[in-house]
Write a structure and sequence with these properties.
The structure is a single chain. Helix 1 packs antiparallel against helix 4 and helix 4 (about 100-120) packs antiparallel against helix 6. The chain has helices at about 1-15, 30-35, 70-80, 100-120, 145-150, 155-170, and strands at about 20, 50-55, 85, 90-95, 130-135, 140-145, 180-185, 195-200. Strand 3 (about 85) and strand 4 form a beta hairpin. It is α+β, with helices and mostly antiparallel strands. The chain starts with a helix and ends with a strand. The strands form two sheets. A four-stranded antiparallel beta sheet has the order 1-2-4-3. A four-stranded mixed beta sheet has the order 5-6-7-8.
């Protein structure tokens, strides 16, 4: 059922919360902070881990019981990450083993494509006719039966699609303020753009 798909999507975001591959200054090592001249034979054929970051505002926290730094570090240890640090601006920096990072990316990508398919073909949704998107999952065009859409609450479910696509951007290394996710709801019969939304707004 679509409701279960959305719950799974949100759980993925809650547990993994937006890691994005990016080289980060952790304030400590020669490797991180200085340019070192490399000889061709010194170069490693591939990375063994990814340094990734998540904006603190993307962490979905319980307002009544917010996570402190020790909770974030403990969660990272439970996930099996190699290292975690928190920068002065609140950005959380993870070091994730390469194989585990690939699994995370595969899980987000699979969850996103399955969610799109469920919106189109699932029995729980009646108004959505088709969904088109670019290959980077930054722009979505949702074609709907206008009458059915306007007489339902199915538009609220599309927020899960925005969240999952935003998580995909962050894990892929994009800055959301530079690459936000856009979603347009379009009347399938007339081509009229009924509404548009973005994440972050």
């Amino acid at each position: 059922m679509l409701r279960n798909k959305i719950i799974v999507v949100l759980l993925v975001i809650l547990v993994l919360s937006g890691c994005a591959p990016k080289k980060v200054d952790t304030g400590g090592t020669l490797e991180d902070n200085q340019k070192v001249e490399e000889k061709p034979n010194d170069r490693k054929p591939f990375a063994t881990h990814h340094e990734v970051r998540i904006p603190r505002w993307f962490m979905f926290e319980d307002e009544d019981d917010p996570m402190d730094d020790s909770d974030i570090i403990a969660q990272a240890n439970e996930q099996g990450f190699e290292d975690v640090s928190i920068q002065a601006d609140g950005t959380i920096v993870y070091k994730i083993p390469e194989a585990q990072y690939r699994e995370i990316m595969d899980e987000i990508h699979t969850g996103l494509t399955e969610l799109i398919e469920e919106f189109i073909t699932g029995d729980d949704i009646e108004s959505i006719v088709n969904i088109e998107h670019d290959k980077f999952f930054t722009d979505f065009k949702v074609y709907v039966d206008k009458e059915k859409y306007e007489n339902s609450f199915e538009g609220f479910m599309l927020y899960a699609l925005l969240l999952q696509a935003a998580a995909y951007q962050i894990y892929s290394g994009a800055e959301l303020d530079q690459r936000p996710v856009h979603l347009s709801v379009i009347d399938a019969d007339t081509g009229e753009v009924m509404s548009s939304s973005s994440f972050p707004e």
